[in-house]
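TL;DR need structure tokens for one chain.
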Amino acid sequence: MARLDQLIDRPLPAAKPTLERVDACTVPRWRQLYADIGTPWHWHDRDAWPDEQLAEHLARPEVQVFRLVAGSSPSAPAAGAGPNAHDSIGFLELERHADASVEIVYLGLHPSAIGKGIGAWFIAAAVKQAFAHRASRVWLHTCTLDSPAALPNYVARGFTPERTETYTTRIRPS
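>> reply
TL;DR here they are.
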């Protein structure tokens, strides 16, 4: 997505989630969010990163971490009943690259938040955050291990698939 006006926005869903930036994200906090949100989607590529490498990455000004918190409407998960003790229902990591593009490195919803209109709003919120980070364009990768709704939702928000790749990976048992 090259311009913010290409975004097909979505209004805040009835669940009224809140996107919160995790300033000075610590390694344990990041790992907890990554595991809580990413495990159902087989996110394991950064499990091998040593704490020092991850800390250096998170300390870079080009990296921003956010969590999506459940709202307080009757359709939202009850406090304490979310996917973790912090009631995070989503995770977002943005990274600004040298060419001024901003990559949506991770964007994921806990399965308990799927089917409530939160995903479409979350993608739109992520794009807005990326352009607020002075992006020349916003881009991401998705794969068949993501929710089946992921790619159609990205396209519905205004993203255009650029290419497809085929590769094989081992899936760790959850």
